[in-house]
Design brief:
It is a single chain. By secondary structure, this protein is an alpha/beta fold. Among the domains are: 66 residues, MutS, DNA mismatch repair protein, domain I; 54 residues, 5' to 3' exonuclease, C-terminal subdomain (DNA polymerase, domain 1), CATH 1.10.150.20. The protein contains twelve helices and eight strands. The strands form two sheets. It has a five-stranded mixed beta sheet with strand order 5-6-1-7-8. A three-stranded mixed beta sheet has the order 3-2-4. The radius of gyration is 21 Å and the shape is globular. The mean pLDDT is 90.
Length: 271
Amino acid sequence: MFALVDCNAFYVSCERVFQPHLEGKPVIVLSSNDGCAISRSNEAKALGIKMGVPLFKIKDIVQKHKVHVFSSNFSLYGDMSSRVMATLKTMSSSLEIYSVDEAFLDLSLVPQHELFSQGCHIKTLVKQWTGIPVSVGIGPTKTLAKVANHMAKKNPSGCCVLADPQKIEEVLKTFPLQDIWGIGYQWSKKLSRFGMNTALDLVQAELGWIRKTFNIVLTRTALELKGTSCLSLEEVYPPKKAMVSSRSFGVPVSSFDVLREAVSFHACVFR
């Protein structure tokens, strides 16, 4: 059994740890140079603020609803991430840090009837020790744990366990294909041409046909959704092959001189 622990609106949650009065208020965190919204509280999402939207496009919403806006503080977020991961390591001997705000845990030694209470315990302990709220999804494969985490975010308990085959089928019956880990919008469009729109449609498809029509990656995804684990925890990571440092503008740029000056500046700073 795998547990996926995902920090809720991580950058926003980090800011709220040190400014508790922001709880329950709309908050967004911007990308470098204060260009786009890269983290949004639930209150900000409810106002219609989309992920990645440039700040200049939502200035009216920000002013009208008094949205709290923060510049990104990646040193703080990195430190808080380390604290969350250190907390999770106390609850499982095997841990895969998937991203700055997500981690997989091995819960194979936990009896099935105790999985939900263990998930709630993880959620409570991370909040108590770090101040960061998390959602916990538990399943027999990493892909199903991802699905369970998606459901956990809609559950008041913040935890969801997909262990019973009947419950898994019930969830997958209405789960959009494009929300499945590793599929995304483009593949879901291709699959829809074959009449597949939900995760259950992919589960019920013939594996040989999937491999012949698409590739082995999608075949593994289908197997994972069926409950056959194809992806193990990666506790040792291969070295990264590339690094990207990106920048964005906070306002529309229509002058070539302004654009040239900005590009020249960042080329000098990050060369």
